Amino acid sequence: MSERPPCGSPPAGAAPAQAAVPVSPKGESPRVKPSAERLAYSVDEAARLTGLSRDLLYDQMRRGHLSYLKVGRRRLITRQHLEQFLPITSTD
Q1: What angle do CA 92, 35, 66 make, to 5 degrees?
Q2: In this model, does residue 57 exceed pLDDT 60?
Q3: Arithmetic mean of pLDDT, 3-28
Q4: Where do the domains of the chain lie?
Q5: Backbone dihedral region of 51: left (phi > 0), alpha (psi from -120 to 50 degrees) or beta?
Q6: Which residues of 32-56 are buried (b: 16+ CB within 10 A; e: fewer)?
Q7: Quick one: CA dihedral 3, 6, 7, 12, positive or negative?
Q8: pTM above 0.70, yes or no
Q9: Which residues, in sequence order, are CB contacts of 10 under 8 Å at separation 6+?
Q10: Cα separation of 86 and 21, whole Å?
Q11: Which carries the bigger pLDDT value, residue 3 or residue 42?
């Protein structure tokens, strides 16, 4: 009978394990900070970027005040959609 390696050890001759990717407490994958250079944002990213709540953004989309793109089951809000929704006026 051959000996087994201790639990958690890779089998003999196996490639070394890659470093584990940190996972958020909710079990979600790590998120990249939204950048102003992105073309489109998820609703969560748009909420963080604008400081508005997800619920408010979904409500505004439902009412037709905030345009979005639907890709599969996802709603994507483009930079242009955000600029139309939140026009920035200059005080010059």
Answers
A1: 70
A2: yes
A3: 54
A4: 40-85
A5: left
A6: eebeeeeebbebebbbebbebeeee
A7: negative
A8: no
A9: 16, 17
A10: 36
A11: 42
